[in-house]
Each structure stands twice: as structure tokens, then as C-alpha cells.
UniProtKB/TrEMBL annotation:
One of its GO terms (molecular function) is oxidoreductase activity. Keywords: Oxidoreductase. Belongs to the short-chain dehydrogenases/reductases (SDR) family. This is 2,3-dihydroxy-2,3-dihydrophenylpropionate dehydrogenase. PROSITE patterns: ADH_SHORT. The keyword Oxidoreductase applies. Gene3D superfamilies: NAD(P)-binding Rossmann-like Domain. It comes from the Bacteria.
Amino acid sequence: MTGWLQGRRALVVGAGSGIGRAVVDAFLSEGASVAILEKDEAKCQAVRDALPNVPVTCGDATTREANEAAVAATVDAFGGLDLLVNCVGIFDYYRGLSELDSEVLDEAFDEIFAVNVKSQLHSVKAALPALREADNASILLTESTSAYYPGRGGVLYVGSKFAVRGIVTSLAYELAPDIRVNGVAPGGTLNTDLRGLSSLGLHDRSLGSTPGREKELQARVPLAVALDGSDHAWSYVFLASDRSRGITGDVVHPDGGIAVKR
Ligand SMILES: NC(=O)c1ccc[n+]([C@@H]2O[C@H](COP(=O)([O-])OP(=O)(O)OC[C@H]3O[C@@H](n4cnc5c(N)ncnc54)[C@H](O)[C@@H]3O)[C@@H](O)[C@H]2O)c1
């Protein structure tokens, strides 16, 4: 343990698997106290079993009520809240607009923007009163390479991630100097459970189970690495820590070097 987050109190939203779950482990190993909000009952129970000292709120992060309950549980357990991380997400399996039936467009748009975008706003809104009470508070939202480039998601996913990027910029502007707001933009990731949209009949598909994913990820990026949540988690630790105290409205890109791809 190096203690980069010693004594800090964190809420991680969407922490039942993948990147969020890895952020929980990294934050704990760096000395933070961590609470979570997660929708999936089985994942909530798995976290309770593995980490009995982590307060778990089981609820839907697209709602005001669940986020307020999770913030209240965090403050109740730890006496305050310094760090908010949102890692929820769903995926559209690369569907282009021409492949989306007109009849499902409304529902698919509402579903992906509720989970990928609105949840981030509800998490921040619910956490703001507690974060304003804290010293050096920090918010971390999860973007993606899809917040910068086309092709690694469909039009709805890319659109939703560009929106998260905009929210990071806008909130960093709004909340300075009291609260820093930054993004992490992971590249394609191993060992996650990123689900498809229910409205497109894709909920049972999990991106992490795609056959050959490790080789495909390695082939995709200049550094030839296939990263998992534990790789990305250190970007969250850095941006949450006071080592990054001069950084807001910015983004770390743990993506194997997509920006320098030939
Ligand atoms: N997997 C990738 O390749 C990849 C790449 C770049 C960015 N991302 C982004 O990283 C983030 C985490 O994704 P992941 O790959 O770890 O997926 P994941 O599904 O393993 O993790 C997301 C967690 O959020 C939970 N969740 C989903 N909807 C929720 C809701 N409404 N309320 C509360 N919890 C909810 C899920 O149950 C899950 O535990 C997402 O924002 C995703 O878009 C993923």
C-alpha cells in the first residue's frame, strides 16, 4: 500500500464488475474508505461477501433516489464524502443509425442516454452537498475512446460518450475552484461485463465474453496491450489523489495509444 488516498472517503457508482469493481480494489489498497452503488442484485451480494466493510446500496443509478440513498449511506458510514466515481455503462454493439429500426430508436436512445449520461448527472447532483463540505473533493466520470473517435461503438454509444466528455468539461468549469472534475477514457477492456441495450434485445450479451477479445484488443492499439480494469484503476487513483491537484476538466486515456495509431 502506498497510501495515495489515505483517509479519503469515496463512492463508486457501477462497481459490481469490470472497471468500477477494479477501482474499488485500487482505492481500498491506497487507503480510501469506499462505498458503492450497483444495480445488479447478484453483484451487490458478491461485493458484500468479498468486502464486508464496503457499504453497498443496491439501486438504479439512473434515478435520483438511488444516488441520494448511496450518498447518504456513504456519509453515514464514513462521516463525509471526498471522491465520487461513476463507472456505469451499457453498449450498443456497434449499431449504425442505418441498422437501427425506426420503431426502436426512441427507446434505445432513452435507454443508453439514461444509463451512460443521466446517471452521471444524478450521481454528481446527489453528491454535491457532501462534496462541497469536503477538502479537495474530486469527481471522476468514465468516458471511453468512443468519446473521441468513431468505430469502437455505434452512433448511440459514441454519442452518449461524447456527452459525458462534455459534462466533464462543463462541470469542471462550474465547480472550480472547490471540486475538481476529470474523466478517464479507457480503451477496449478485458474481463468486464458491459451489457448490451435491452431495447435492442442485447441485454444478455456481455462485451467481456466476446471470443478472441484479448488478441483483438492487442491488435488494435500501438502498444499491443490488452488492458483490464485493474490497469485503468490507476488512472482513477491518480486523478482522485492530491498528486493531480492542479488538474481539472481533463482526461487520462488508458487506451494503448489510440491517438498515435498509424
Ligand atoms: N468494457 C470496455 O471495453 C470499455 C471501454 C471503454 C469504456 N468503458 C466504460 O467503462 C464503464 C464501465 O464499464 P465496464 O466495461 O466495466 O462494464 P461492467 O458492466 O462490467 O461495469 C458496469 C457496472 O455498472 C452496473 N450498472 C449498469 N447500469 C447500472 C445502473 N443503471 N445503476 C447502477 N449500476 C449499473 C453494472 O451492473 C456493472 O456492474 C462504462 O461507462 C463503459 O462505457 C468500457
